[in-house]
């Protein structure tokens, strides 16, 4: 199997000021816009079109220079996988729509990203809109992009929003090395293989979030700070984005199993059940992690409340010790004239008056400290740490 384009080996790293992504910016058409309007830049470069044509005996991979060249591979007995990397411009999609007989609303769903995952049956082809998730190895978090699949009798058209990265590398390798049964089956089995790869792509992302949540649990209990609260909110927000991606995707796969299509064979529907089970498992993991982060929020508030109580207890103990000392110092600071009356501060004329005053205050302070210690008020003071 020849390869004209090497798959990307590195994920795209955004600049520092662009690393924070908003996973909730959904596209909406302008009010009054015509159905089937494609919101693409007219001067945008055309997308890369990669063709993988295979049968049980052989397979080849080549780059297609124009959309019209794809027409020769649509009615062959072999399976043709046309992979479009990037959205391109309106002129390219006008030609693709003619070659693949795509309805204008289908083109709108493919191009105007992101769309909610769904399935649309047009009798001669089946349209599947999905959301693909890829982890960011260096910066954390994940990529999320739309992948559209158009299944025909002997072909599969896939459109990726971003050309830099995808999770289809293992499928391409299975086709190249003729591993498994993928080259002995049709385009419907290839569709299942890509859907399964998209669903399985959620698991590495969720494993990373599981580790982050475990670290946050230790941080919340041992040393919660304001940065901890920000981390909890960030994880909750990202998990909500994952939930919005996998929930309708699970329903779309269920639609394929329940309603079916003439383009999906009975054996492929059995495989789709396994894909549906994986989607349900992803949903369970997302919901579990969301509940854990909600519990972390309660633990954080409780930890901060306990920490404030300990601090207030310490301040109360210190104030309780110094209040009687301040009273004694205030009494001896009134400076009454002892010569006028024997009741006017006789201690002012004592030889040991000053040491006697310090002795009284020391005995009072140590008596209060001993009393508070016996009551257990000094416990857990050593656990109070300064915020970084």
What does this structure look like?
- By secondary structure, this protein is α+β, with helices and mostly antiparallel strands.
- Among the domains are: 1-182, CorA soluble domain-like (Beta Polymerase, domain 2, 2-Layer Sandwich); 311-383, Methane Monooxygenase Hydroxylase, Chain G, domain 1 (Up-down Bundle), CATH 1.20.58.
- Helix 5 (202-222) runs parallel beside helix 7.
- It is rod-shaped, with a radius of gyration of 35 Å.
- It starts with 47 loop residues before the first strand and ends in a 14-residue tail after the last helix.
- It has a 7-stranded mixed sheet, with helices on both faces.
- It contains 8 helices and 7 strands; from the N terminus they run βββααββββαααααα.
What does this entry show, briefly?
The chain has 388 residues and is an alpha+beta fold.
Helix content: 40-55%
Please name the CATH architecture of the domain at 1-182: 2-Layer Sandwich
Give the DSSP E fraction (strand runs of 2 or more residues). Answer: 5-15%
Assembly state of the chains shown: single chain
CATH class of the domain at 1-182: Alpha Beta
List the helices and strands and how they pair.
Blueprint: E1 48-54, E2 59-64, E3 79-85, H1 90-100, H2 104-111, E4 118-121, E5 126-135, E6 142-151, E7 155-160, H3 169-177, H4 187-200, H5 202-222, H6 226-259, H7 266-332, H8 353-374
Parallel strand pairs: 3-7
Antiparallel strand pairs: 1-2, 1-3, 4-5, 5-6, 6-7
Helix pairs in contact: 4-7, 5-6, 5-7, 6-7, 7-8
């Amino acid at each position: 199997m020849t390869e004209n384009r090497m798959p990307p080996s590195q994920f795209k790293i955004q600049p520092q000021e662009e690393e924070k992504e908003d996973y909730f910016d959904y596209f909406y058409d302008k009010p009054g816009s015509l159905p089937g309007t494609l919101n693409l830049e007219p001067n945008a470069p055309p997308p890369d079109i990669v063709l993988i044509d295979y049968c049980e005996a052989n397979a080849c991979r080549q780059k297609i220079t124009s959309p019209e060249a794809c027409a020769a591979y649509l009615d062959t007995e072999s399976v043709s996988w046309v992979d479009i990397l990037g959205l391109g411009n309106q002129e390219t999609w006008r030609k693709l729509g003619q070659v693949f007989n795509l309805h204008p609303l289908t083109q709108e769903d493919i191009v105007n990203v992101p769309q909610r995952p769904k399935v649309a049956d047009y009798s001669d082809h089946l349209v599947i809109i999905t959301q693909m998730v890829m982890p960011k190895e260096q910066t954390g978090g994940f990529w999320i992009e739309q992948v559209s699949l158009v299944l025909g009798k002997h072909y599969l058209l896939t459109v990726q929003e971003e050309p830099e990265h995808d999770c289809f590398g293992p499928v391409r390798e299975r086709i190249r090395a003729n591993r498994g049964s993928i080259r002995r089956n049709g385009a419907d089995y290839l569709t299942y293989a890509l859907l399964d790869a998209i669903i399985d792509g959620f698991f590495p992302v969720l494993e990373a979030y599981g580790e982050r949540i475990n670290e946050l649990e230790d941080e919340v209990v041992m040393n919660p700070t304001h940065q901890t609260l920000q981390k909890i909110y960030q994880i909750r927000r990202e998990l909500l984005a994952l939930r919005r991606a996998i929930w309708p995707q699970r329903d779309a796969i269920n639609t394929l199993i329940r309603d079916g299509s003439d383009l999906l064979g009975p054996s492929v529907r059995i495989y789709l059940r396994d894909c549906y089970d994986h989607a349900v498992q992803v949903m369970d993991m997302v919901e579990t992690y969301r509940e854990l982060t909600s519990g972390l929020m309660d633990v954080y508030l409780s930890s901060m409340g306990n920490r404030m109580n300990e601090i207030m207890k310490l301040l109360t103990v210190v104030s309780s010790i110094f209040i009687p000392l301040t009273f004694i110092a205030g009494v001896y600071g009134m400076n009454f004239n002892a010569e006028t009356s024997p009741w006017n501060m006789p201690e002012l004329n004592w030889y040991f008056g000053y040491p006697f005053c310090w002795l009284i205050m020391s005995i009072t302070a140590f008596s209060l400290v001993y009393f508070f210690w016996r009551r257990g008020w000094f416990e857990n003071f050593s656990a109070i740490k300064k915020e970084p």
